[in-house]
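User: Second chain of the day. Same drill as before.
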Amino acid sequence: MRQTILARRYAKALFSLGKEQGKNENYSEALGAIAELYKDESVENALINPLYPLDARQKVMAKIAELAKADTILTNFLNLLLEKKRADILPDIAHEMQVMVDQEQNISHGSVVSAIELDDALKEKIQQTLEKITGNKVILEASVDPSIIGGVVAKVGDLVLDGSIKTQLNGLKESIKGRE
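Assistant: Same format as last time:
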């Protein structure tokens, strides 16, 4: 929990700077690319391991920033993370930054779960319906879960639309229990 709060604070600071410069999307993309590098344990280790001297870690981060085409502000931000021993939360900062950029652009991320694979036309129809309900552009991620038997479960933020057969059967079961 503490890491999320810290990540949100750092992301908010970078978001404010990016907003002044008009570079929020660039910063978010660059942080996302750098966060992807953290999936390689050797890169993450080179940046967060205290056994390596700070100047060596800064050189690694400088090279990463150069490859990510980071400007001076983002490069300084990345160095600040190293100096404050917060480089380990960079993937969380990248996530929080992306959430802030999406909110600014009225973009919501959602998921739709179905018992079988949905075709593109149906996914598009579900996406359009969710966009009407939320008033935001919705980016959907589809997945398959045979345990819901049939129907779909759509989630966008706090909104959950559950039209699965499993839920309907559970509701029927509860209503029958209530009558006994």
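The chain has two domains: 2-103, 107-179.

User: Great, on to the next one.
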